[in-house]
Design goal:
This protein has about 80 residues and is α+β, with helices and mostly antiparallel strands. The protein is built from 2 helices and 3 strands. It has one domain: 3-Layer(aba) Sandwich (Dihydrofolate Reductase, subunit A). The protein starts with a helix and ends with a strand.
């Protein structure tokens, strides 16, 4: 992933893989993290950030869709 990021070109997007997202956050390879929050309760499931050290993020953008979903985009902490 580090090699891909160093190459010129477009963005790298990861969809639906909590383990790859965790690895990118831990390795400092994340430029932006967009979480799509759906207004539905689905019971239990995995937690996105279980098992990694606390990481501060800054909220960069928030959008609300017509169906009530929230797209929250975070970047590295700018503090």
């Amino acid at each position: 992933m580090r090699e891909l990021k160093s190459r010129p070109g477009g963005d790298i997007a990861v969809q639906g893989s909590m383990s790859i997202v965790r690895q990118c956050v831990e390795a400092g390879l994340m430029d932006a993290l967009t979480l799509i929050i759906h207004p539905a309760l689905a019971g239990s499931g995995g937690r996105l950030f279980d098992g990694i050290a606390p990481t501060r993020l800054s909220l960069v953008d928030v959008q609300r869709t017509q169906r009530g979903n929230i797209l929250a985009t975070y970047g590295p902490f700018a503090g």
